[in-house]
Write a structure and sequence with these properties.
Blueprint (H helix, E strand, L loop, with lengths): L3 E5 L5 H10 L3 E8 L2 E6 L6 H10 L3 E5 L13 H12 L4 H9 L5 E4 L2 E4 L10 H8 L6 H9 L5 E4 L16 E4 L9 H5 L3 H5 L4 E5 L2 E5 L11 H8 L11 E4 L8 H6 L4 E5 L3 H14 L4 E5 L6 H5 L7 E6 L9 H11 L5 E10 H5 L2 H13 L3 E15 L2 E12 L2
Parallel strand pairs: 6-7, 11-12, 11-14, 12-13, 14-15
Antiparallel strand pairs: 1-3, 1-4, 2-3, 5-6, 7-8, 9-10, 15-17, 16-17
Helix pairs in contact: 3-6
The structure holds S-adenosylmethionine.
């Protein structure tokens, strides 16, 4: 895999960038100097979402280029995890050839979601590879994960490995998380537990916690997905030049999840955010996040389909909905009619902005086809409004040539 190097032109950000790479186990020593810039080697591919995230965060202070050492898997690249695995296996008397095979299939990337170390998977590099399954099933290796936690991640108690979210689940739940150390949920995961969890069920789960952009987010890794790639869009909500008039106004999040976007609106001092979310585990995470963050604004959480939004909003006075978030992938088409009803009945004057998320093929972005289709679809639902594309944001790549995009569409009354 060709990896990239980061040319850091503003050294004030060097430490933060290094720390972020270390969190992803993607930092490669040493940092070099070149023409007054710092060169930071990484284990990241060019299209990695962490590269996107860094560029969105430090764009002006950063350039990306392909590494000269692409493909070098020599001693230099060996990281702490490989070293730990090698020594552990050697001490257990594992034959050298077997160790070599295991190191070839060792996952190199992980996310730190307190208290869980969550490993990434690729076909070749995963703890779910047959070689690792065999090795870990041997009694001599039973303590591998525990010792790894103790030596490399002393603040963490659980190890798990993730696989991509399946396409067919509208609640986008992490069906493929596999626990490797520690119990993520004490009990049997019956449909009742998924769909109507009790307080005991909530207590039986591990709850992960991360802070992004100074915002606490909480979720159960067994029942709710967490995508760190959305950080770019979360940051955009925090930017008053991108999302205007959030302060003191109301917002509606039609697919609220654990509050990826809701919490950013609240940080921006939205007066009230109205959240609709089907998954009870996500609403529980959202409520826990709201408690931890202690923002001033109110967060009203409805654990039900957004189809009920009009009845719910009718119970509130003096609504002034300035932003409506439609954050469902691969498409939030289902929410268009509801968003427009809200804009019509409760929209802020003179404009309400819709933030429409969708996975779009690059050809449909460049040809403008997706924008045309979306504006036409909205016009078909409520022709009495004027729809203007204010911005198209490419958030992250979802698949080759497919981008998770957000369209900001200003909705105003026709005069
Ligand atoms: C992309 S995910 C969530 C992203 C979200 N913003 C977050 O913080 O997790 C979309 C969410 O929409 C929810 N959802 C899907 N259809 C829905 C509907 N008709 N009404 C309310 N929520 C819905 C899913 O359960 C899922 O949590």
């Amino acid at each position: 895999m060709a990896t990239i190097e980061l040319l850091v032109t503003d050294v004030r950000y060097l430490k933060q960038i290094k720390t972020r790479l270390e969190q992803e186990n993607a930092f490669v020593k040493p940092i070099a100097s070149e023409n007054g810039h710092k060169v930071v080697k990484t284990r990241l591919a060019k299209n990695d979402e962490v590269v996107e995230e860094l560029l969105s965060q430090y764009g002006d202070a950063l350039c990306v280029r392909l590494s000269n050492e692409a493909g070098d898997t020599g001693e230099k690249q060996k990281d702490r995890l490989s070293r730990f695995a090698q020594i552990f296996l050697q001490n257990n008397g594992t034959p050298t050839e077997e160790i070599a095979v295991l190191l070839e299939h060792l996952p190199l990337r992980y996310s730190l979601y307190e208290p869980v170390v969550l490993f990434n998977n690729s076909v070749e590099r995963t703890f779910l590879h047959e070689s690792w399954k065999m090795a870990l099933s041997k009694s001599a290796n039973a303590g591998f994960m525990r010792q790894m936690l103790g030596e490399l991640f002393p603040q963490y108690t659980h190890v798990a490995t993730n696989q991509p979210i399946v396409d067919y689940d509208e609640m986008r739940r992490p069906f493929h998380i596999v626990s490797l150390e520690g119990t993520l949920f004490e009990g049997v995961i019956r449909p009742q537990v998924q769909n109507q969890p009790s307080k005991q069920d909530f207590d039986a789960s591990v709850w992960c916690h991360v802070v992004q952009n100074g915002i606490h987010q909480v979720w159960s890794p067994v029942f709710t997905m967490f995508s760190r790639g959305n950080i770019k869009e979360k940051k955009r909500i925090l930017d008053p030049t991108a999302y205007i008039d959030v302060e003191g106004n109301d917002a509606v999040d039609l697919y609220a999840g654990i509050g990826y976007f809701t919490l950013s609106y609240l940080k921006r001092e939205a007066r009230r955010v109205f959240c609709f979310e089907l998954n009870p585990w996500s609403t529980e995470g959202l409520q826990r996040g709201v408690v931890l963050n202690q923002f001033q604004g109110q967060c009203h959480v409805f654990q039900e389909s957004n189809e009920h939004c009009l009845e719910r909003l009718a119970n509130f006075q003096n609504l002034r909905v300035r932003h409506i978030n439609l954050g469902l992938l691969p498409s939030s088409l289902q929410g268009y009619p509801w968003a427009l009803e809200i804009a019509q009945k409760y929209g802020a004057m003179p404009v309400t902005t819709l933030h429409v998320h969708e996975n779009i093929h690059i050809n449909d972005i460049t040809s403008g086809q997706f924008v045309r289709d979306t504006l036409n679809a909205l016009h078909g639902i409520k022709p009495e409004f004027l729809y203007v594309l204010a911005h198209l944001e490419k958030v992250k790549t979802f698949a080759p040539d497919v981008w998770h995009c957000v369209l900001d569409i200003d909705v105003t009354w026709k005069t």
